[in-house]
Amino acid sequence: MKARLHWIRDEEHPMSLDCRLWGKAAGLGKSACGAHRTHPLICHLLDAAAVAEVVWDELLTVHQRSMVVGALQVPDEEARALVAFWAGLHDIGKISVPFQMHHNGPKDADGKLLAQELGSEQGYGYPDGATQDRQSHEAAAHWWLAGIFKEIGYPSSKRRPQSQLSHAVAQILGGHGGRFHPVVRDKDSRCPVARHPGLGSGSWERQRRIHFDEVRRVTAAMSVPQGRMTPGAAVVLTGLVTLSDWLASIEGEIRSRLREEGWAGTPEDLDSYWPIARAEASRVVHQADLLGTGFVRPVPVRSADGTSLGASLAGQLPDLVAEYGPGLVVVTASPSQDRTEAALRAAAVLGHAAHARGLFYALPTGSAADSHMAQVHAFAEQALTGPWRSLLLHSASRLKPAEAAQQWAHANALGEISAEPGEEWALTADSWLNSHHRALLAALGTGTVDELLQAVMPVKFNVMRLFAFSGKVVVVDEAHARGAWGQKLMLRFLEWAAALRIPVVLAAMSADKSVDAMLAAYRRGAGGGEEPLVQPRRLPAWSFVDAQSGGGHLPRQPAESVRGSTLGIEVADGAPYDEIRAVLATLVAAGRGRAVVYRPTPAEAVRTSRQLEVDLCGLDVTLVHEQMRNMDRWQRLAACRSAFASEGTVSGPSVLVTTPMLEHVRGLQFDLVISGTAPLAELLARAAQSAGDQPRLVVLRADDKSEVDDAALVRRTEILLGAGRTVSLPEELPLLLDEVYADGLVDRLEEMAARELKRLDNRRTVRESQATGTAGWLAVPGPGELDGDLSLLSRDQPGMEPELLSAVLGEEMVHVVCVYPGRLLEDGVCAQRLALDDKKRPRPGQLVPYLIPVPQRLVDGVTDDANGVWRGMAALKGVLRLNLDREDGTWVRTSARHRFRVDESGLMIDQLS
């Protein structure tokens, strides 16, 4: 501190704060004289500080605040002032030559940079290379603040700066742009301008110090914390600072508080501005649809059958949570709406105990997420208090999650299927939350597990994902349905979830080693012991791990199966379509019955449905597959939930023809399930949709195998099932799943067949080993492995290409929107025009109902710049504009490799020789 005061006293004319240094300009319009309006940097810093106070007071949960207070070792009120101070410093790196002098910066009426007048003043001079300094303003903040925090007494270390608070806070503030920057060594923090001349010396340095002092004075953050940053506190602080910046940067709000010309930024001016910033901050945060959501106290459930899964959880989990605090609940049972209900009931208990402010429900696929929204909303109506906002979060809804939710609501309201949930829960199209990076902050989200996995991958704003989840309960349905990649990343997510004390509910079909590994990962993140905790193998079952100690707990009275059934599995050897037609002909002859047919691809599903309509008169055929437009797929799924529910509206013989996209969808019940060959777990997930005491599954042995299915597991399943078998459910389900992996399965085979299976097994082992190893290398470190260096959460290693990140999350997808000379196709006719801006680009939300997810490999041949005019919009980079032409009455597009055809059945893609 003495050194800093020394240079101030040495000045003949001490500088005052220079409010010409701008912080925001884009979208603020122009003055009467034609110059760009700017928002002084000091005002933006105070705006962010004011928002941080509101976020601390009203948005953070009790536990989120306690993590920060515990790390800083200061009272709550001092912690509040410090986080406001730090949030106010996030953009101090904008006091630098490259930022202020950027060629795209604000200009006067003649096109001259407003900041050029600074460069003409002696104190603001800079060397020639300063404007070419490639350091971002976020990194500049990190470099400069590491030294200044050390100066004012924050704990520091010369040898390991990342281990102390001075560097930790600087690194957090430098990471508000979505990525943390590498550790700044002590010698660099003492004189950062030596390495980065763009920071500027002279008046540049003095203005940084003056802005620093004024933000500190106004926020009254004079205390000097002596604590040590923890991973949990770092996540909360990063989220708070980033969120404060986002909210303080809303252009329409900034325009309402622009200072008049001649505003000087004196201490008195700042003292007058601070109450304005605080009042606006409170209003902005309250308008952002973030506040007011909580969990009601769960009502004790009285059940005549106290040993059912739901009753066992409801009767015993509240006592465990009351004694040990929130944690992880693992539920293993056959897929069903009852299991979903039990998982949600557990979430309600955990959410109330944790004072959580919402819930995220994660499923393996977007179609499964779509199908669960109704049940999740019914839960929210009973379990959540205050206003709550819901978004649909998966790749097909990514552009505008709220508009996707609205479209889903419209689709589900058709045919008077359900008035709940109505549009009262859906955000308006222009809501602040209706955006890619901000959507996870919504109180209620229904989406895919990818949203969780990206929190532990080195993608931009991954820590904001952890922050969003740290205030919620997370439910993961079919937790082990993502293969080796996903399982490894799920373990890392669960470590972080435990460290952040995130309540989690995992639901799985059956307990196995992967489920045990998830229990161990959560225990590890919570600091629990190394002794193994095994999920009970009998079904149904549940267990609990508390996040406070990592201790494992089993129910005093295990759940008992209320009602068993016998699954009959038949294996048909004939031509797939002939077998399908023969089985369905029995329904037609009987005049009743409901069936579902799983085909390996959308093209096969379309072909099968069309043949059945011709061959089996009297059979009601419904088609649903993933290569339909969003709105068409949602409408058909809504109709299916009405027709094929337990008390559905279909009276005559009917069949749903679909693809594996539907295997995790709940609420559909059939007398019969027909499927091609697939790994046993997938077949059993589809078989769970067969209702009654004697569910029936027909497996088509000669059907084409899916390209994404593992050949070894498919072959093992074929051997295990043989010509068919019966399975007592749920007792034999875990035994059957264990049997398909058993080494002894090979012993049943003749020598040639055994050798072939061993070859396939070896290939599977190698692939899984490679996937697990790569996922482990790709995943961010666990909370116990950071050693104070947050940049490890953003590391960019050689070979870590975007394609690799996509591969981890499953087959890389793009979203196609079919465009017909200036229009979108609706109901078979050119009915709706695209509303284009002056650059001939559509409003992204307008496209949500028309998006069609397609594997990237199928559109690689479209190379004629079909979406070139859209590339300037970040939201549309993953959208392929497929311009179609009319040929012989059909809308088509031909590329070098594929021919695209569109009709009422969806998008069909034919491979060209």
Could you please describe the fold and organization of this structure?
It contains 30 helices and 28 strands. By secondary structure, the protein is α/β, with parallel strands linked by helices. Strand 26 and strand 27 (898-903) form a beta hairpin. It is globular. Mean pLDDT is 86; it is low at 1-13 and 414-426. One of its GO terms (molecular function) is ATP binding. Residues 34-247 form the HD Cas3-type domain. One of its GO terms (biological process) is defense response to virus. It holds the Pfam family Cas3_HD. This is HD Cas3-type domain-containing protein.
In short:
Residues 34-247 form the HD Cas3-type domain. By secondary structure, this protein is an alpha/beta fold. The protein has 30 helices and 28 strands.
* Number of DSSP helical runs: 30
Average per-residue pLDDT, rounded, comes to: 86
Number of strands: 28
Q: What portion of residues belong to β-strands?
A: 5-15%
Major sheet characteristics: 8 strands, mixed
Overall shape: it is globular
The separation of the N and C termini measures 75 Å
The low-pLDDT segments are: 1-13, 414-426
Computed over alpha carbons, the radius of gyration is 30 Å
The assigned structural class equals alpha/beta
Q: What percent of the residues sit in helical stretches (DSSP H or I)?
A: 40-55%
Neighbour order of strands in the largest sheet: 7-8-5-9-10-4-11-12
